[in-house]
Amino acid sequence: MTINQDDLGGALRVLADGDDDAPAPVERLMRRGRQARRRRAVGVSAAVLGVAAVLSVGVIGVTAETGNPSGVTVQAADLRLAAASAATERETFGLRVTMRSETRTWVREGAYDPAARAGYLSWTDDHGTSQEQRVIGDDVYLKLTIDGKRNQWRKMTGGAGFPMTNLGDGGAPAMSVDPSEVLAALRDNGTVKELGGSRYSFAFRGETTSGRTVTGTVEVGSGKVGKVSYDVGGAALVLEFFDYGTAVRVERPA
Amino acid sequence: MSDHAIASPTSDAAYADFVRTVWKHHLRVARLLTGDPERGEELLQECLVKLYVRWRKVAKQGDPQAYLRRMLVNGSVSWWRSGRREYLLAEPPERADPVADGALAAVHEPREELRRALLALPRQQRAVVVLRHYADLTEREVAATLGCTIGTVKSHHARAMARMRELLPELESQDSEGMR
Question: Contacts of residue A28 in chain B, CB cutoff 8 Å?
Answer without folding.
Answer: 45
